[in-house]
Amino acid sequence: MSMQISTTRSERPADDARLADILANPGFGTYFTDHMLTVEWTPDAGWHAARIEPYGPLSLDPATAVLHYGQETFEGMKAYRHPDGSVWSFRPEENAARAIRSSQRLALPELPVDDFVQAVDALVEVDQRWVPTNDEAGEKSLYLRPFMFASEAFLGVRPSQHVTFMVIASPAGSYFKGGIKPVSLWLSETWTRAGRGGMGAAKTGGNYASSLLPQHEAIAQGCDQVVFLDAEESTYVEELGGMNLYFVFKDGRIVTPALGTILEGITRASIIELAGKLGHQVEERRVGIDEWRDGVASGDIVEIFACGTAAVVTPVGELKWDGGSTPAPASTELTFKIRQALVDVQFGRAEDTFGWMHRIV
C-alpha cells in the first residue's frame, strides 16, 4: 500500500523570470525548489504524516537528538530531463536499498523501498519545472537529497523514538566548469576515513565530516581531493572523500577497491556493469598504494578514474604525498568512453539497455 501524501502548494513560488535565471547558472547546492517533502516515524504510529509543503526552515528543539549524537543518514540522486521533456531518475530503488542499509547501521527505522521512491517522485512531480533543460551535450539536472534524522528532543544515548525523513531538491549545473580535467590527489597518511566494523559503508554525515580536515590539507598542498588508505595497515587504497576509485590496466582489466569499509556507490556498481558490457573484466579487490605507484611508473596502470553522483566520472591525475609524487597515468581514453556512455543513458541520449532509468513525469 502506497503512502498517502498531502500537498500544500507554495503561495510564493519562484516566478518564471527568476527560475530562468537560476536554471541558466544553477551551480551546486545553492538554490532550492519551492517545496519539500516530510514523513515522520514513531514506534507506535510507524511512518505517517507524509506531506509536501513550501520549502522553509525547520524548527528544532535544542535537545533534538541528531544535534548531539549525529544519528542521521542521507542519499544523493538526480532527476534528468530527457529531450522529449519527460523527467527520469537513475536507479532510485538502489538508493532506497542503500538507505535501508544505512538506517540499519545507524539504528534508524527503515523506510521501505517503494515508499522511498514514491516520496522522491512526489516531490519531483510537484517541482518538475525546476528540472533543467539541456542542449545536446548539457549535463544540468535536479539534484535530490533524501535524508533521515533523529528528531526526538531527548538527551539520553539511545535510538531516537521520533524520526523525520525529508526530501529537498536543488538544480545543479555541470560539475566541471571549463571542461573535465584530471583531479590531483593528496594521499592522507595521517587520517583514515573508516575502520572495520565502523560506519564506512553507511551514507551518514559523520563520514563526510571526518573527511573535511584531510580535504583541507589536500587543498593546502595544491591538490583537488584527498585519498584515504585502510585504517588497519595504512597500505590499501580505499576511496576519496566522496568518490570511488577505479584502476585500468594495460591488458584491459579494471580494478576497484573491494567493499567493506567504503561506500557502496550507485555509480560504482553501474560502472561495473557498463564496463563488463564494453568487454572489460572488472575485479573488486584490495589495491595497495605501492601497486598504484609502481603500476603507473611501469605503465601497467594506464588510467585511473573516480566516480560519484555529482561528478559522474572524472579522470585522476597526479598523486602527491609528503615527500613524493606519482604522475598522472598515460591515458584517459576509457575513462571518457565510460563517462559518455553513462551520461548518455542518464540524459536519454542513448538506449537504456540496463533498465536503469525510472520515469517520474
Polypeptide structure, described:
This protein is an alpha+beta fold. The chain has 2 domains: 6-174, D-amino Acid Aminotransferase, Chain A, domain 1; 183-346, D-amino Acid Aminotransferase, Chain A, domain 2, CATH 3.20.10.10. Helices cover 26% and strands 29% of the residues. It has helices at 16-24, 66-69, 92-105, 113-126, 205-220, 266-277, 289-298, 333-346, and strands at 6-7, 35-42, 46-54, 72-74, 77-81, 87-90, 141-150, 163-172, 183-187, 225-229, 237-240, 244-249, 254-257, 282-285, 301-308, 312-321, 324-326, 357-359. Strands 1, 2, 3, 4, 5, 6, 7, 8 and 18 form a 9-stranded mixed sheet that branches. Strands 9, 10, 11, 12, 13, 14, 15, 16 and 17 form a 9-stranded mixed sheet that branches. Strand 13, helix 6 (266-277) and strand 14 form a beta-alpha-beta unit. Helix 3 crosses helix 4 (113-126). 40% of the residues are buried.
CATH superfamily of the largest domain: Aminotransferase class 4, branched-chain amino acid transferase, N-terminal domain
* Oligomer designation: single chain
**SSE sequence, one letter per element:** EHEEHEEEHHEEEHEEEEHEHEEEHE
CATH topology category name of the largest domain: D-amino Acid Aminotransferase, Chain A, domain 1
Per DSSP, the total helix count is 8
What is the CATH C-level name of the largest domain? Alpha Beta
The end-to-end distance, rounded to whole angstroms, is: 21 Å
Low-confidence stretches: none
Radius of gyration: 21 Å
Overall geometry: globular
Summed up, the domain count is: 2
Q: Report the mean per-residue pLDDT as an integer.
A: 95
Helix/strand-derived class?
alpha+beta
In CATH, the architecture of the largest domain is 2-Layer Sandwich
Q: How would you sum up the major sheet?
A: 9 strands, mixed
What's the helical proportion of residues?
25-40%
Q: How many β-strands, per DSSP?
A: 18
Keywords: Amino-acid biosynthesis, Aminotransferase, Branched-chain amino acid biosynthesis, Pyridoxal phosphate, Transferase
InterPro entries: Aminotrans_IV, Aminotrans_IV_CS, Aminotransferase-like, B_amino_transII, BCAT-like_C, BCAT-like_N, BCAT_family
EC number: 2.6.1.42
Modified residues (N6-(pyridoxal phosphate)lysine): 203
